[in-house]
Amino acid sequence: MAPATGTALVLLVAFVLPGFVTVLLQERTFKSADDPTPYDRLLRAVYYSVWCYLVLAAAALVLGLDREWAQSLLDRHDSNPAGLVWLAALLVLVPAGAVWLSTMIWQESGANNRVLSKLPLFNERHQRPTAWDFWFRKGAQTYVRVIFPDGKSIWGYYGEQSFASYKKDGLDLYLEQVFREKTVSEDESDNEVGGPWFGKRHPLGRGAWVKVDEAVSVEFYAFDDGEPSATPTAATASVRTTGHQGRAASAHKPGSEGASPSSSTTPAEEE
User: Fold this and answer.
1) Are both 95 and 164 inside the same structural domain?
2) CB–CB of 20/51 below 8 Å?
């Protein structure tokens, strides 16, 4: 139900605003943006607002601030409303910043996962809404094959200059390098599987945008020497054909030759 009076509206905004600022800071820094409903976003803002006001209450207890101090503060700024506005802004921003910093340290230090992993019902992978987000939020760099219903494929390299959108924004994928397709025989592959493979990279190519919504699968390939090859070899390559189950090797830098491939590991093996 909407607030019936202006005073109720002001109180509602004053209570929700610190939490909203906290959520905004999280999404602009360390927390991956998701797509919550307006109701979920409101609940999240209220949750963090409670923490913000707990921070203010703790500060007031430590400093010995009481109601009389607050009233005297209002009286001192009665003739200077601008100063009162600045103080109100600080009362919102300072606790919101403190809660944001605490949650960032809690998340980035790994303490969050360590604590939650002790809970029997916790599954870290379910923190990601889709398999697409689960894979690409790792920030791994790897060779990619996108397969379409007509059997055609796009062969490319996903590296530091590549980009993958969140699933909620559509399956957009930018690959910084694209390779021609070639066919290898079984004798050329240690996996004893002949067929299409990465061909030569076009010397003037600057990558490609891929609309993956229409693809039937995405395959990931790993190479051990840390450098993307102009023509990846088929020998000793191991492919995961289940979509988003591969893992890239260590960071690659474009421009070198002669990469040797190695087998990928699944996320379960990685963890």
Assistant:
1) no
2) no
